[in-house]
C-alpha cells in the first residue's frame, strides 16, 4: 500500500496525553460541581435524525449541520429531479437521513419529550459531549468541539438561577480563576424598556444596539438607535437606563424608577432581586456578580434570566452563558415546560488556564514512579516492587530490561514521571534501591518498604 | 411547527442518568487501571479523512463506514458519470471526503505516524471513545458504541503482554467479576502447527476449523479440515495438539514435543512461557489463565500473543480481546514498529454486571441528601444548611418551595437520594430537623451540626 501522509480533517484535533490530562482536569472539575448541585449526566447519540435537527438553528445553522450519507445504494432512492438539476440542498433530503449533533440543547429537548414518562421533574441534567459544525475553521473555532451544559426543566423557581451563579462561581474558582465576572440580565427588563418607550415590536433592534455599548460607546449606540427608527425622545427616555452605573442595588433602584409604568419590567427587576437574595443567603462569591442590562445574548429564546461569564485576567470572549427559556420542548410537541440552563466554554477556559499557567502540575502526572533496571536480573528484582506499588494504588511502571538507563530517564522526563527507582547490582546486593526525585535530581538509597511508604 | 414524534436513529441509544452512572462506573474503573499501569489517554477526532479509513477493514468493513456528505454545493463537484449510471460506490468518493471513526485502532495508527516526532516510545496509550458502524442493528449490536482500548507501541518486551493479563484481571475483579477466564494463544504456535504438517499456506483454513472446536466438537473439526484439503495424515499429526488438555504446563510440554521440528512453533511456546513467568512473578490472578491453541481471533494482523476474555458466570461472548501486531503503523508508512493492545467490550460488560447485579448502589446515588421544605420560610431556613453541605463536598439539593412534601419524597425516591431533611415549623422552632433514611424509612430529629457530620 502506498504510504499516505496522515492528517486529520481540517477543523478537527487530536488530543495528546498532556492535553487530555488538562482537558480532563477541566471537565472533571465542572462535572463534580454539577453533581454537587444535583445535576445528573445523560448522553445522547452523536447522530440524530436529520428531521430532528433541521429548522432549529435558522437557515445559516442548517447549512452548518454535518449530514451523514445513507448507507448502501443511496442513489437508488435519490431525488431524480434534484440530481438532474444539480440542486444539492434538495438532493440532500433524499440521500441523507441522519446528521451529527449540532449542539446539546436540541438533542436534550428531544430526549425530554421522548422520555417524558420516565423522567422525574424537575429534571436536572448535565451533558458533556462533542458537537460538530461545518463552520469555516479559524483560530479558536473548530468543526468538532465539546459542549458542557447543565439544564433544569420543569422548575420555575429562581433558586435554579441562583444555583447556576454558584455553579459558575465554584467551578471557575476550583479551576483557579481569581478575577471573573458573572453578568446577569433579564429579558423582562429589556421588554420593560421597550414598553416604556412604546416600542414593543422593536425590542430586538433596541437590544442589538444597546448590546454594542462596550464597543461603540454611548454616541455610537445613539447613532444606531436613530438609524433603527428610534426618536430623540425615545433615546432621552432610555438614556439613564443604558448608562446605568453603580452597585447592583443602585442599578435596580434606578431601573424600578425608570420602569415603574411597565409591569413586566418591574417583574424582571423583582426576579433579579430574588436571585441576588438567594445567592446572598447561600455563599459569598469569588466572582463579581453584575447586573448588566446591555447583555442580550440568545434573545430569541431566553424569556427570563440571561447569563454571561467573562474572565478579567485575560482578553477573551465569554467563557460561559445561559438563561431561562419557556418553550424548549415545544418544538417537539411538549408545551409549557419551563427550563433554564448554562454552558461552559471548555476550549476557551483551556486557553485561559494555559495563559495564566493555572493547570496543576499533578494534572499531567499520570505515572508516579518508573522502575529502571540495568539488566534482566534487575527487572526480575523489580517486579515484586512494581506489584506492591500497584497494590497500594500507586501508578507505577517498570521499563522493560534491555534499554540504556539514559533512555529510561528520558522516558521518565518526557512523561513527567516525578520519581524513579534504579536497580543495579549494588542495589540488589544491599537491598537499598536508588530513589531519585526527577525534578530536583536528588538521589537517596531506600529500602523497598521506605519507597512504598514515600509513594503511598 | 408541526409536532414531530421524536426518536433516535436506529441502532443508537440515549443513556439516562441511571445508565450513565453505571457506564461511568465501568469506564472509570477501567481507566483507573490503565493509568495505574502507565497508560495515558488520548482522543482522536470523530471524523477522519475517508482515505485514512478505506481499505483498512476489508470490503465488507468499507461498506459499514458512515460517510459524511461534503458541505455546501456538493453536487457541483460530483462525479458526473457515477451520477448518470447511479453508481453509488463511485459517486461516494466525489461527494464525501470524511467519515466517522470505525474503530480506535486505525485512528491510533494514524496518530502515531502523524505525531511520531512528539511521542516518547514505548508509547502506552488508552482511548475510550465511540465508534460508528452501519451494521444491521440487532440485540446487543449498535451503530454507535464505545470502544475501550489500551495499546503499547515500540516495545517488544513480553512484560507488556503479562501486564495486559494483569490489567484484565484487576479491572474485571474491581468490577465485581469472580469467575472469568483469560485465554492466551500465540500466532507463532499456530504457524508452527501449520509448519509441522507442511501446510504453511493453509494456516488460516486450519485455524478457522480448529477455532470451531467448542461449537462443533472434534469430529466436526475433522470434517471441516478434510473439506478444506487437509489429509488424514495431517489430521492424525495435529490431533494431539487440537485435543490438548491439562494444566498450562502440561499443554506447553506437549506442544514443545509436537512442535520440536518447528523453530517458530517453539518460539511461540517460549513466549507464552515467558508471559506466564512474568505474571507469576507479579501477582496471583483472580482469573483462570488458560493456554488455548484454538483461539484464533484477529489472525490476519496478530503476529504474537492473542488474548480473549470470557466470563464463566453468564452466557456471553467474549468481553475482551487483543494481541501483538508487528506492523500497525505500516499502513501509514512507518514500518517496523511493534505493538500490542487489548480492548474491553464495555456494552457486554454492562450486560454481565446488570445480570449478576454487580453495580454498586452508590454508583447510582448522585445526590446524597435532599432538603425538603413546607414553605418559603423553610426554604429560607434551609439555604444555609444547603450551603454548609456543599462546602463539605456533600452532594445536596434543596427542593424549591411550593411543592407538596409527597412530591418532594417521590423526587428523592426516583433519584435514589438516600437521605432527606424535612423543615417545617416545629423543626424551625426547635432547631432539630427531621432527618430521614429513605431506604429504611427511619426518622430522627437532628441538629444541623449532627446532620452535617452524618453526611460528611
UniProtKB/TrEMBL annotation, chains A, B:
InterPro entries in alphabetical order: aa-tRNA-synth_II, aa-tRNA-synth_II/BPL/LPL, Anticodon-bd, Anticodon-bd_dom_sf, His-tRNA-ligase, HisRS-like_core, HisRS/HisZ, HisRS_anticodon
Principal location: cytoplasm
Keywords from the UniProt entry: Aminoacyl-tRNA synthetase, ATP-binding, Cytoplasm, Ligase, Nucleotide-binding, Protein biosynthesis
Domain Aminoacyl-transfer RNA synthetases class-II family profile as annotated: residue spans: 1-384
Residues that hold L-histidine according to the record: 103-105, 133, 147, 151, 297, 301-302
Subcellular location: Cytoplasm
Molecular function via GO: ATP binding; histidine-tRNA ligase activity
Protein EC: 6.1.1.21
Biological processes, Gene Ontology terms: histidyl-tRNA aminoacylation
One Pfam family from the record: tRNA-synt_His
Catalytic activity: tRNA(His) + L-histidine + ATP = L-histidyl-tRNA(His) + AMP + diphosphate + H(+)
One term under GO cellular component: cytoplasm
Keyword Calcium assigned: no
Keyword Cell wall biogenesis/degradation: no
Subunit structure, interactors included: Homodimer.
Homology family: Belongs to the class-II aminoacyl-tRNA synthetase family.
Protein name in UniProt: Histidine--tRNA ligase
Species this protein is from: Mucilaginibacter phyllosphaerae
Gene behind this protein: hisS
Amino acid at each position: 500500500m502506498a504510504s499516505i501522509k496522515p492528517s486529520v480533517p481540517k477543523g478537527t484535533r487530536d488530543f495528546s496525553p498532556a492535553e487530555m490530562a488538562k482537558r480532563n482536569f477541566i471537565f472533571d472539575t465542572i462535572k463534580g460541581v454539577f453533581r454537587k448541585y444535583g445535576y445528573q449526566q445523560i448522553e445522547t447519540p452523536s447522530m440524530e435524525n436529520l428531521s430532528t435537527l433541521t429548522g432549529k438553528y435558522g437557515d445559516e445553522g442548517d447549512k452548518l449541520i454535518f449530514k451523514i450519507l445513507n448507507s448502501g445504494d443511496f442513489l437508488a432512492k435519490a431525488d431524480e429531479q434534484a440530481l438532474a438539476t444539480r440542486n444539492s440542498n434538495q438532493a440532500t433530503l433524499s440521500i441523507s437521513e441522519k446528521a451529527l449533533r449540532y449542539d446539546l440543547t436540541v438533542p436534550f429537548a428531544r430526549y425530554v419529550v421522548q422520555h417524558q414518562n420516565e423522567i422525574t421533574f424537575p429534571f436536572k441534567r448535565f451533558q458533556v459531549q462533542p458537537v460538530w459544525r461545518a463552520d469555516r475553521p479559524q483560530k479558536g473555532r473548530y468543526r468538532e468541539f465539546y459542549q458542557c451544559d447543565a439544564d433544569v426543566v420543569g422548575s420555575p423557581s429562581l433558586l435554579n438561577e441562583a444555583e447556576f451563579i454558584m455553579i459558575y462561581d465554584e467551578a471557575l474558582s476550583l479551576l483557579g480563576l481569581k478575577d471573573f465576572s458573572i453578568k446577569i440580565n433579564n429579558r423582562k427588563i429589556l421588554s420593560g424598556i421597550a414598553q416604556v418607550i412604546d416600542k414593543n415590536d422593536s425590542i430586538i433592534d433596541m437590544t442589538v444596539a444597546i448590546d454594542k455599548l462596550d464597543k461603540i460607546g454611548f454616541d455610537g449606540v445613539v447613532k444606531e438607535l436613530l438609524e433603527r427608527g428610534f426618536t430623540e425622545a425615545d433615546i432621552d427616555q432610555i438614556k439613564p437606563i443604558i448608562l446605568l452605573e453603580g452597585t447592583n442595588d443602585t442599578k435596580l433602584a434606578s431601573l424600578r424608577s425608570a420602569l415603574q409604568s411597565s409591569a413586566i419590567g418591574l417583574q424582571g427587576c423583582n426576579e433579579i432581586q430574588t436571585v441576588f437574595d438567594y445567592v446572598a443567603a447561600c455563599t459569598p462569591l469569588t466572582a463579581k456578580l453584575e447586573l448588566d442590562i446591555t447583555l442580550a445574548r440568545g434573545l430569541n429564546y431566553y424569556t427570563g434570566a440571561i447569563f454571561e461569564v467573562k474572565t478579567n485576567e485575560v482578553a477573551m470572549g465569554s467563557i460561559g452563558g445561559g438563561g431561562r427559556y419557556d418553550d424548549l420542548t415545544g418544538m417537539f410537541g411538549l408545551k409549557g415546560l419551563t427550563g433554564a440552563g448554562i454552558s461552559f466554554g471548555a476550549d476557551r477556559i483551556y486557553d485561559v488556564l494555559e495563559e495564566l499557567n493555572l493547570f496543576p502540575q499533578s494534572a499531567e502526572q499520570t505515572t508516579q514512579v518508573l522502575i529502571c533496571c540495568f539488566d534482566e536480573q534487575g527487572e526480575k528484582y523489580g517486579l515484586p516492587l512494581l506489584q506492591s506499588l500497584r497494590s497500594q494504588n500507586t501508578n507505577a511502571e517498570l521499563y522493560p530490561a534491555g534499554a540504556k538507563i539514559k533512555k529510561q530517564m528520558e522516558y521518565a522526563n518526557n512523561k513527567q514521571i516525578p520519581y524513579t527507582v534504579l536497580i543495579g547490582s549494588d542495589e540488589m546486593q544491599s537491598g537499598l534501591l536508588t530513589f531519585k526525585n526527577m525534578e530536583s535530581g536528588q538521589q537517596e538509597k531506600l529500602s523497598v518498604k521506605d519507597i512504598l511508604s514515600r509513594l503511598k
